[in-house]
Amino acid sequence: MNENIEIATETIQLGQFLQIANVIETGGMAKWFLSEYPVFVNGEREDRRGKKISIGDVVEVEGVGTFTVVRES
Fold it and tell me: To 5 degrees, how large is the angle CA 56–CA 13–CA 64?
């Protein structure tokens, strides 16, 4: 299932994105989550919580789902 996640800015950090997408509860969980679970940004494995995610990027969290970043309307 592909879910659209709206952001108000041009970019967002991966850790913040995971929180907005309700994958993690707090931003502090991002480092641990990324070390334990495979996360892919545009098909490439990513483990940096500070990785910039932009409008149009696709984030796949194994076992959770696929998310597309869209501009907030």
Answer: 70
